[in-house]
């Protein structure tokens, strides 16, 4: 497999994702983003909608205002859950769901379902052969069709069919910095953003339910409380803190770990720094740069099959831990986007780095063909012009791409010193083009001993040391936009 085809085939930029209006804010604490795979179906923030969660489908539908009441289309509501058809002769509207037949009359509050009367709390409506039912009747109406309990939270417009709710548990590790583990009973995929003093998680597609109390307080000076709310089909969990926060996923997206962004450690008066690299960093008065290291793949996404038993995801995880150590002893704060075998989407990876306001993003890959390494920077798609501090999501890298190329050249130079065959290249790949800080992807290939080198601690260590030395050499350029 050729170098250029391997990563670009895994991180393509589909044309469906090149949407005008998908922007990311490049300064301050705010990150504005949307999960691209849901963008086309997601309602606007101002549009009323209802979210339906069931064992067979999760979806949202628009809510219509009629005569001061809220309505939803009944055919559209049942269609994802079974076989359904309808017909209308003007005033009468008939529906068949699986083997269940129902008849409704426009402007009337009484219907027949399975031959039995059912009374709505507001008149049934027919518009352009479309049957509309009042929202406040769904809790009693749907069990007549589905034959299973339904929990409808009318105020939040969230409807649960059967026992599909995802529970939340909280576990605070009062370490330094403190870590709050949010444990979910099922995988979740929230949109995550930050503002001063708060990390916000919005669950648009996950049936997350209240943890019991709307506010959970923690006896901690940094992470102080978590609050739960739900409205307009969405659930939201906010974590309040006195310092900037970042989030990472573990345990197959069943756990989100919230922690303070690493800060410069205080050095007692007269006490020597921990190592020479930190001494130089403190003496120069520069801030402690946060490096986000991203082991590619994970969970169900195994990456390249390096041998019959060795998956790329396992090599990148071990490689990332060595790189973290090398960067830390040189005075960097380091965050791994995954420290276990868990799945992350490309948007989640980019969002985590952006939310953390990192100084550099390094994605790690591995391949069984070729030798040495290749260092990639983003080749950006045409996304149109920026709008002030807002940049198109797939071209968020644009302002710092020159610095990314400087980092790439430095890594190439350091690897050459260690006799690694190495080349620099650009590719249209994600998530490099979605991050706001200098970003590179390093793909490790075998050395003289073949594929066995990919799991060799000494081989990985040599590569990690070269990358770390290169990043140190351009430290003063990191986090600075041209």
Task: Kindly estimate the percentage of residues that lie in beta strands according to DSSP.
Answer: 25-35%
Tally of DSSP β-strands: 30
- Order of strands in the sheet with the most strands? 25-24-26-30-27-29
Report the CATH architecture of the domain at 1-22 and 275-482: 3-Layer(aba) Sandwich
Radius of gyration: 26 Å
Oligomer: single chain
At a glance:
The protein has 482 residues and is α+β, with helices and mostly antiparallel strands. It is built from nine helices and 30 strands. It is elongated.
Describe the structure in your own words.
This protein is α+β, with helices and mostly antiparallel strands and 482 residues long. Among the domains are: 1-22 and 275-482, 3-Layer(aba) Sandwich (Aminopeptidase), CATH 3.40.630; 64-156, Copper amine oxidase-like, N-terminal domain (Copper Amine Oxidase, Chain A, domain 1), CATH 3.30.457.10. It has helices at 3-10, 36-39, 74-78, 138-146, 276-283, 312-328, 346-355, 401-417, 457-473, and strands at 23-25, 49-53, 58-62, 64-66, 69-73, 84-88, 92-97, 100-105, 110-113, 116-119, 125-127, 130-134, 150-153, 158-161, 168-173, 179-184, 191-195, 198-203, 215-217, 223-231, 234-241, 245-250, 255-260, 290-295, 333-336, 360-366, 373-378, 390-392, 422-427, 439-444. A six-stranded mixed β-sheet has the order 25-24-26-30-27-29, with helices on both faces. A five-stranded antiparallel β-sheet has the order 6-7-8-9-10, with helices on one face. A hairpin with a 4-residue loop joins strand 2 and strand 3. The longest helix has 17 residues, at 312-328. It is elongated, with a radius of gyration of 26 Å. The model is unreliable at 1-45 and 264-286 (pLDDT under 50).
